[in-house]
Amino acid sequence: MKKIIISSLIVVLISALMLISCKDGGSMEIISDSESVVSKEDIHDIENEEVVNTIITVDVCGAVICPGVYDLNEGDRVIDAINAAGGMLDEANADTLNKADYLKDGQQIRVPFIGEESAEADDGRININTADIAELTTLPGIGEARAQAIIDYRETNGNYEKVEDIMNVAGIKEGTFKKFCDRIKVN
Questions:
Q1: Which helix (H) or strand (E) holds 73?
Q2: What's this model's pTM, rounded to 2 decimal places?
Q3: Strand 30-31 to strand 126-127: parallel, antiparallel, or no bridges (unpaired)?
Q4: Would strands 126-127 and 184-185 be described as parallel, antiparallel, or unpaired?
Q5: In this predicted model, what pLDDT tens digit does every residue of 106-134 receive, in sequence order?
Q6: CB 184 within 8 A of CB 128
Q7: Quick one: fold of 126-185?
Q8: Nearest-CA neighbor of 69 among 82, 59, 61, 54?
Q9: How many other CB atoms are there within 10 angstroms of residue 30's CB atom?
Q10: What is residue 163's three-state secondary structure?
Q11: CB of 186 within 8 A of CB of 120?
């Protein structure tokens, strides 16, 4: 019986010490199964941590309600820029845009009007960020295997930032690039 009374007193004493420590503003430690220690101060810091978004600026023009320059968050998509500009007009030719594409700082998003050719069709150059194998094989020195390598590279690494980035594809060096550099573009 004495052992039960002593054990009970020890449990009460430990509980009282923990309660006093918490009331006095002391730091209580929480220990998980993995034996990592988190203090009340650490929890407070985590709760007050701010999420920082990188702001990018894009120009939205063409068949939108409010054309203009808009500040958006990095990671936003073309549709977010269009929505920031009030959405598309009824006369917009929405099928020519990749509305799911990620935005880049300084990018211009032009929403063409119905009947208006897109900017890609105007200059005759091939956009290496959207071209398929058939389009790429029209370039001098690019066969089907190399065209597929161009597509595989952009699917693995994301869109090409500048036309010179195509030289990162295996088998395309400066000599080959010079043969078609004036016939390609990135958007």
A1: strand 68-73
A2: 0.42
A3: unpaired
A4: parallel
A5: 888 889 888 775 544 456 788 998 889 99
A6: yes
A7: DNA polymerase; domain 1 (1.10.150)
A8: 59
A9: 11
A10: helix
A11: no
